């Protein structure tokens, strides 16, 4: 199997595990020095990235994940995925479309960047109040800080 095909296997394993709520298999796809980044949590390094997925999976009651358009080369990859779930703070149904870009090292994901429209996510999650988070930088930054703090607290409790 060539490297591009091996990288595709890793991406498919990652998202199949995600859809099955299997955080440990997801973590096994990551290199120990992985760097993850998305609009909500910002940049996460190493174990933070794996613990973020674990936290989201353990707190989600009805998460559904569907992935598509997996493309890979010898060093990079990409995929589209959609997460559908109920946002626990409001009870609102969220459908979030995400584009992921990957880089690989030693047969594992070394860099994972998820891109999505955070403003649209705010409105889906919070209703009309989400417009405040979407368009007032102070509130948007406060949300990001809270997301990171929630993860830090989760990691401290689940070492």
UniProtKB/TrEMBL annotation:
Keyword Aminoacyl-tRNA synthetase: no
Organism superkingdom: Bacteria
SnoaL-like domain: residues covered: 11-112
Pfam short name (any one): SnoaL_2
Transmembrane region(s): 121-139
InterPro entries, per database record: NTF2-like_dom_sf, SnoaL-like
Keyword Transmembrane helix attributed: yes
UniProtKB keywords: Membrane, Transmembrane, Transmembrane helix
Name used for this protein in its record: Nuclear transport factor 2 family protein
Native source organism of the sequence: Chryseotalea sanaruensis
